[in-house]
């Protein structure tokens, strides 16, 4: 019987903690005080990180394609260095 009461107390604790966390998250999401550009800053930061990651992965292909486009535009060959 004591194990059941401890289990019940633990379940009540977990559920009340989850409810409190949910309430705090909703309050934070709906709070309009402070910096109104917070979400836009996060979105721009995420975009910058994605572009940087793409460049790191495909940097050789990007540089080669840029050299090719510039060479075709100005009519010279950059690979003779």
Question: Which characteristics define this entry?
Answer:
0% strand; 81 residues; mainly alpha; elongated
Explain what the structure shows:
The model has no long low-confidence stretch (mean pLDDT 83). The chain contains two helices and no strands. The chain is elongated. It has 81 residues and is mostly helical. It has helices spanning 2-30, 38-74.
Low-confidence stretches: none
Q: Kindly report the average pLDDT value.
A: 83
Instruction: Bin the helical content.
Output: over 70%
Strand content: under 5%
End-to-end gap: 84 Å
Main sheet record: none
Structural class: mainly alpha
Radius of gyration: 28 Å
> Count the helices. How many?
2
Q: Tally the beta strands.
A: 0
> What overall geometry do the principal axes of the alpha carbons give?
elongated
Write the element-wise H/E pattern from the N-terminal end onward: HH
């Amino acid at each position: 019987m004591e194990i059941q009461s401890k289990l019940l107390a633990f379940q009540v604790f977990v559920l009340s903690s989850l409810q409190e966390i949910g309430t705090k998250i909703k309050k934070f999401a709906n709070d309009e005080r402070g910096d109104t550009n917070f979400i836009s800053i996060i979105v721009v930061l995420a975009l910058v990180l994605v572009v940087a990651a793409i460049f790191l992965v495909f940097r050789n292909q990007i540089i080669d394609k840029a050299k090719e486009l510039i060479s075709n535009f100005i009519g010279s060959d950059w690979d003779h260095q």
